[in-house]
Design brief:
This protein is of the alpha/beta class and 507 residues long. The chain is built from 19 helices and 16 strands. It has four domains: 125 residues, 3-Layer(aba) Sandwich (Udp-n-acetylmuramoylalanyl-d-glutamate--2,6- Diaminopimelate Ligase, Chain: A, domain 1), CATH 3.40.1390.20; 91 residues, no CATH class; 148 residues, Reverse transcriptase/Diguanylate cyclase domain (Alpha-Beta Plaits), CATH 3.30.70.270; 94 residues, no CATH class. It starts with 9 loop residues before the first strand and ends with a helix.
Length: 507
C-alpha cells in the first residue's frame, strides 16, 4: 500500500521552491525527486561520515573551510548517498560545481548564515505537509499570474519537473509536453477533467508519473486541480480575444471580396486599390497572393469555436502574421510575395500543417499567385476548387491548382445526386455484383480515349479482361461507345467511381 501524501517526505524539488533554498544558487541540481528525510548541520568531516542516506547536509565551520574541504565533503556525501549539499556561496566555486556535476551530487550555494538555514530546513523537513502546502500556495500565485494556456502548462511542468503534463482537447494535445500522452509500459497516468461553460466537459489535464518517480500521485493530482481555475480563465480570455479578432477578420475579408466583385464604375477590376485598413490587420495584399483553402473532408456546417481555435493555432504556428479567415465550413489563408514563383514558404507551411490536418480530417487546396485584391479573390476560388480535388486523397490531402487546371470542374460535380440517377437508368448494372469493376473499366477506357491497351495498363489487367468487361457492361445497359451517350455515361461513371472510392476510404 502506498504512503499517504501527508506522511511522505518532502522532495528536494519541493524544498528549492520555497525559502530559504528558493534564493540559493543551483551549482548542480541532480534529481529534484530525491526525498529529504532529515537535515544535518555538519561542522566536521566525522559528522559527515555518520550521515544516513537521504539527508540534506548543510556544511559549516571546519567542513566548509575552503575549496579542498568542499571537495572532501562532496566525496563523503556521495559515498553516504546524501540527497544534497548546501554550502556558503563564499566557499563554493567553479571547481566545486565541476566536481558536483561529475559526482552527480546536488550542490546549492547560499548567502545566509548556514546555521539559520539549517534550522529553517529542519522545520520544513519535519513537517512535510506544511512545506508542500507552502509550495502549493506559491504555485497557485504563479498560476494566477498566467494570462494564457501555455503559461499555465509551463508553470505545471516547471513545478512537477520530471512528470510531463499536457492539456488535451478531444484526442489532441494543445499545450504542454507531448511526453505526457505517450504510451508507457510502466508508470501511471493521472487525468483531471477541466470544465468549460455551463459545466460542460471541455478538456483534460494529463500527467504521466514515471514508475521510478517518488512524486506521489496524490500530489500530482492536487496540482492539476489547482491549475483548473487559471486554465478556465485563460481559455475564456483566449476565446474572447479569438472571437473578437475572428469577427473583425471576417468582416474585413467580406469587404475585400465586395471590392473585387463590385468594383467602382471608374475603376477596372484589376486596378482595385488596397484599403488602408488591411495593413492594420497585418495583411499583405498588394503583392502576388497565393491563397490556401482548409476544409473538412466531409463538411458539416460551420465549425465550432474550439475547432477553429485549434486549427488557427496549428496553421499560424511560426506564421502568426498570415491571415486566417473563417468562410462557411472552411478557413482561408494566403501568402503574399513580390515574387509570384516563390512557393517555398507555402510548401513549408503546408508540410508543417499535415499532422494537424490529419488529426482534424482536413484537406488543403492551394491557388495560383495573382496580384492585388482581385487576384486574391481569384486565387481563393482556385484554392477552393483544388481542395475539392484533394478530397480524393483522403485526410491531409493537398492539391495545388497549378497541377489541376480544368480538371477541378469534375471535383465540383454533385456526385451523390448524379450517382442516384444510375439507380433509375442503369438498374441492371447497379444490381450486378461486379458493378464496381465494370464501372471502373468503362471509366478507364473513356479516360484513355477508347484505347483498350492504355486502359488495361491503367487498371493492371490483361487487354482481354478489359474487352470482356466492356461486353458485359454493354449487356447491362452501359453502352459507352454510343456517341450521343458518351459524355453522360462518362460523367456518370466518374460520379459512381468517386462515390464508391470515398466510401471505401471512410471505411
Amino acid at each position: 500500500m502506498s504512503q499517504r501524501l501527508s506522511t511522505l517526505p518532502v522532495t528536494l524539488g519541493g524544498l528549492v521552491r520555497i525559502q530559504p533554498l528558493a534564493s540559493a544558487a543551483r551549482l548542480h541540481f541532480a534529481d529534484p525527486q530525491r526525498q529529504v528525510e532529515h537535515v544535518v548541520l555538519a561542522e566536521t568531516f566525522d559528522r559527515l561520515r555518520r550521515c544516513a542516506p537521504h539527508v540534506l547536509v548543510v556544511l559549516h565551520d571546519a567542513a566548509a573551510a575552503g575549496g579542498w574541504s568542499l571537495a572532501a565533503a562532496l566525496h563523503l556525501a556521495w559515498e553516504r548517498n546524501v540527497s544534497a549539499v548546501v554550502v556558503s556561496r563564499a566557499v563554493a566555486g567553479a571547481a566545486g560545481a565541476a566536481l558536483a556535476e561529475r559526482l552527480n551530487m546536488t550542490l546549492l550555494a547560499i548567502d545566509e548564515d548556514p546555521v539559520d538555514v539549517a534550522l529553517q530546513l529542519a522545520g520544513q523537513v519535519s513537517a512535510p505537509a506544511a512545506a508542500r502546502a507552502m509550495s502549493q500556495a506559491l504555485c497557485a500565485e504563479r498560476l494566477a499570474e498566467q494570462t494564457n494556456v501555455r503559461g499555465v502548462l509551463g508553470v505545471l511542468n516547471t513545478e512537477l519537473q520530471n512528470v510531463p503534463v499536457a492539456l488535451v482537447i478531444g484526442e489532441t494535445g494543445v499545450a504542454g509536453r507531448v511526453a505526457a500522452l505517450q504510451d508507457r509500459s510502466n508508470g501511471r497516468r493521472v487525468e483531471v477533467d477541466v470544465q468549460g461553460p455551463a459545466d460542460q466537459p471541455w478538456a483534460r489535464l494529463v500527467a504521466a508519473v514515471p514508475a521510478n518517480s517518488e512524486t506521489a500521485v496524490e500530489q500530482v493530482e492536487s496540482l492539476l486541480r489547482l491549475a483548473r481555475p487559471s486554465l478556465q480563465a485563460a481559455w475564456a480570455q483566449t476565446r474572447l480575444d479569438s472571437t473578437v479578432h475572428s469577427a473583425h477578420e471576417q468582416a474585413a475579408f467580406g469587404l475585400l471580396r465586395r471590392l473585387a466583385t463590385e468594383p467602382a464604375e471608374d475603376s477596372p477590376p484589376l486596378d482595385i486599390e488596397t484599403p488602408s485598413w488591411s495593413s492594420e490587420l497585418g495583411w499583405q495584399v498588394d503583392g502576388a497572393n497565393r491563397a490556401v483553402w482548409l476544409t473538412p473532408i466531409q463538411p458539416s456546417g460551420e465549425p465550432s469555436e474550439e475547432v477553429t481555435h485549434l486549427v488557427r493555432a496549428a496553421w499560424q504556428r511560426g506564421r502568426a502574421h498570415w491571415p486566417f479567415v473563417i468562410d462557411g465550413d472552411s478557413w482561408i489563408s494566403w501568402h503574399s510575395s513580390e515574387d509570384p514563383d516563390d512557393v517555398a514558404p507555402l510548401r513549408r507551411a503546408v508540410s508543417a500543417f499535415r499532422d494537424s490536418a490529419e488529426a482534424h480530417r482536413l484537406v488543403i487546396g492551394v491557388g495560383r499567385a495573382h496580384p492585388g485584391v482581385a487576384g486574391l479573390m481569384r486565387s481563393v476560388a482556385e484554392a477552393r476548387l483544388a481542395a475539392h480535388v484533394a478530397r480524393d486523397h483522403g485526410p491531409a490531402g493537398v492539391q495545388w491548382f497549378d497541377q489541376v487546371g480544368a480538371a477541378a470542374a469534375l471535383a465540383w460535380l454533385p456526385t451523390t445526386e448524379i450517382a442516384q440517377v444510375a439507380d433509375l437508368c442503369l438498374s441492371e448494372l447497379m444490381d450486378a455484383r461486379d458493378r464496381t469493376a465494370l464501372v471502373q473499366t468503362v471509366l478507364a477506357v473513356l479516360d484513355c480515349g477508347g484505347s483498350l491497351s492504355q486502359a488495361s495498363q491503367r487498371l493492371g489487367v490483361h487487354r482481354n479482361t478489359v474487352l470482356a468487361r466492356l461486353t458485359r457492361a454493354r449487356q447491362l445497359g452501359l453502352a459507352y461507345d454510343e456517341p450521343e451517350q458518351r459524355l453522360a455515361l462518362h460523367v456518370l461513371c466518374y460520379a459512381l467511381s468517386s462515390l464508391w472510392a470515398q466510401s471505401t476510404t471512410e471505411t
